Amino acid sequence: MVEVGAVNATGSWNLSEVSVGDFLADRSEDVERLLDGIRSVARFSEEAMAIVDELGRFRDHEVPAAFLLLWSAGVTGVPQPLEEPEVVRRMCRMAADLQLTLFLQALVTAALAAGTEAGRGAARIVETLGVASSLADRTGGSAPGLVFRVWRVAHLPGILRVGSGAPEQGEAGFRAYDQALEHLLETR
Q1: Which partner from 64, 113, 122, 131 sits 20 to 30 angstroms from 170, CA to CA?
Q2: 13, 139 in Cβ contact below 8 A?
């Protein structure tokens, strides 16, 4: 989400203008809120969260078009030239949609694994998803309500369908989060 946000922040989708370092410096409070939300929802320890820093994603680095192609699941194919601003813009939009939907799935799954009841965890997930959405695309193109609706149709049917193999407790947890998230996001 950070790289996609840094590219989107240029407004030109010209990869030579991207500075992940500048993007992060301007949004350091948002990054801290994001990490705090993840830590809270998943009940991760400080040691577990230290892995984030070790990965180097929150340091200045290049954003090659190939990364955007991977994060957007190759929906655009492999057009040439891959660095064309219109292609980069499309890959960023798809990558934001896909990565934020996967992020929401990871948050809900981590909350359930940590035993965080939906009534308590959903509000923090909505807050954290809002920060992530804003980091990915400040224009509102990746609003939490939209991410939620995509998550609901992309992930829940496979988990909640008859014969999915998901344990009853897991199904009940995902249903509870679906209802709690829907309630919170529809009242915004």
Answers
A1: 131
A2: no
Omega before 64 cis (within 30°)? no
Record the tokens describing residue 76, joined without a space.
Answer: 């655009």
Q: What is residue 11's predicted lDDT score, i.e. its pLDDT?
A: 92
Could you check whether the bond before residue 81 is cis, i.e. omega within 30 degrees of 0?
yes
Residue with tokens 């359930």: 112
Helix, strand, or coil (residue 12): coil
> pTM, whole model, 2 decimals?
0.92
Average pLDDT over residues 127-155: 94
Are 102 and 147 contacting, i.e. CB atoms less than 8 angstroms apart? no
Q: Write out pLDDT tens, residues 25-57.
A: 999 999 999 999 999 999 988 888 888 777 767
